[in-house]
Amino acid sequence: MTHNQKIFALLVCLAVFLLTVEMVRSRRLREEYSVLWLTTSVLMFILVLRYEWLMALTRLIGAVLPTTTVFLGAVLFLLLIAVQFSIKLSRLTDQVKNLAQENALLKTEVERLKYDGTPNT
Amino acid sequence: MKQILVLIPAFNEEKSLTKVVQGVRENLPDADLLVVNDGSRDKTAGVARQLGVTVVSHPWNMGYGTAVQTGYKYARDKGYDFLVQIDADGQHDPASIVDLLKPVRTGEADFALGSRFLGKGDYRPSWPRRLGMGLFRKLVSVIIRQPISDSTSGFQAFNSRVVAFLTGDLFPCDYPDADLIILLHRARFRIVERPVRMYASHTGQSMHNGLKPLYYFFKMSLSIGVTLLRSKRHIQGGPS
C-alpha cells in the first residue's frame, strides 16, 4: 500500500467516525444505530495501519487480493445494517399498530363519554 | 354481565353494512354490535352510527387482521364472554350465527370456525384461490389431526379466553386464517367447525388481486412453519 493510499484510507475512516459522532451529538442519529458505523470505521482504521493484518485475514478467508477482503467486509457491513433496520422496522410497525389500535379504542370511549356522560363498562 | 359481541370489520362497506347489521340483529337480538372501521374512505362509519352500532375507527387502513384484533381488544376490555366475527361485505349469512355460536356457548369448544363447504351457498371461488384453499386446508387438517374444510373462513366464534389470547403479540395480523387455526391448536384451544352459508362478495375490495395471492402463499407457508417451530413455552395463554 502506497503512502497516498494509506493517507486517503485513513482520512475516509476518520471522516466516517467523526461524522457519526457529530450526528449522535446533534441527536440526528441514535446511539444504537451508531454502533455498527463506529465499529466499522475503527476496524478499517486498524487494518490500514496494520496492513499485514489485512494480508493475514485475506489468506485466512482464502482470497487472493486484499481488495477482495475489503469488498467482502463492506458487503457484510451493509448486510448487517440492513438486517438491523429490518428488525427495527418490524418492531416499529408493531408498536405503531398497537398505538393506533389504542388510539382508536380510546377515541371511541372519549366520544361516548362526551355524548352519554357514562363510560361503556 | 355482557354476553355476546358481534364484531364486524369493515373497509369501504357503506352499501352492504346496513343489511349485515339488520341480519345480525334479527338473529341475535341480545348481542352488542361493534363495527371496526378500518380507515374507510366512504361513509361506513356514518352508516354504522346511524344504525346505533358502536364504531371504532382506525386512523388509516391497517388491514383485516389488525381490524379484527382491535375488535378483540375491545371485547377483552369490556369483558364480553363470547365474540362472533362476521364480514361486512354480506358474504356471510347472519342466519348462521346462532348455529356457529352454539358450540362455544355450550362449552363444547373454545373456537368455532364457519365452513362454507359444509353448508349451502352460492360461493364458488376462482381456481387459483380454490387451489390455495385446498392446499392449506389439507395442511391444517394434517397438523391439527382434525378435519378442517374451510381454513380461510373469517366467519368465526370465540370464547373470552381465545379473545384474550388473540390480543397478544402472537396473533398473525397479516391474513390470519390457516396459521391462526394452527396457533390456537398449539395453544390447546378446542376447535370445531360448523356449516355456515356464504355468498360471493359483490362489494368491497378483494385481497386476491395482482401479486397478493403469491405474497399470501409465501406469508402463510412461512407463518405456519414458524408457528410449528415455536416452543410450547412461547405459545402461552391457552388453557393449561
Relevant terms:
heterodimer; A: 121 residues; mainly alpha; B: 240 residues; 8 helices
Could you explain the architecture of this structure?
- The complex is a heterodimer of chains A (121) and B (240).
- The mean pLDDT of chain A is 90.
- Chain A has helices spanning 3-25, 31-49, 51-61, 66-116.
- In chain A, helix 1 (3-25) runs antiparallel to helix 2 and helix 3 packs across helix 4 (66-116).
- Chain A is built from four helices and no strands.
- Chain A has 121 residues and is mostly helical.
- With 240 residues, chain B is α/β, with parallel strands linked by helices.
- Helices cover 39% and strands 15% of the residues of chain B.
- A seven-stranded mixed sheet of chain B has the order 3-2-1-4-6-5-7, sandwiched between helices.
- In chain B, strand 2, helix 2 (44-50) and strand 3 form a beta-alpha-beta unit.
- In chain B, helix 3 packs across helix 6 (160-166), helix 5 (127-144) packs parallel to helix 7 and helix 7 (178-186) runs parallel beside helix 8.
- Chain B is globular.
- The two termini of chain B are 25 Å apart.
- The mean pLDDT of chain B is 88.
State which percent range the strand residues of chain B make up. 5-15%
The gross shape of chain A turns out to be: elongated
* Oligomer category: heterodimer
What is the approximate shape of chain B?
globular
- What's the overall average pLDDT of chain A, rounded? 90
Question: Helical residue percent of chain B?
Answer: 25-40%
End-to-end Cα distance of chain B, whole Å, is 25 Å
> Tally of extended strands of chain B?
7
Helix content of chain A: over 70%
Mean pLDDT of chain B: 88
Strand order of the largest sheet of chain B: 3-2-1-4-6-5-7
What is the ordering of alpha helices and beta strands of chain A?
HHHH
Number of strands of chain A: 0
H/I helix tally of chain A: 4
The biggest sheet of chain A, with number of strands, parallel, antiparallel or mixed sense and barrel status, is: none
SS summary, helix count of chain B: 8
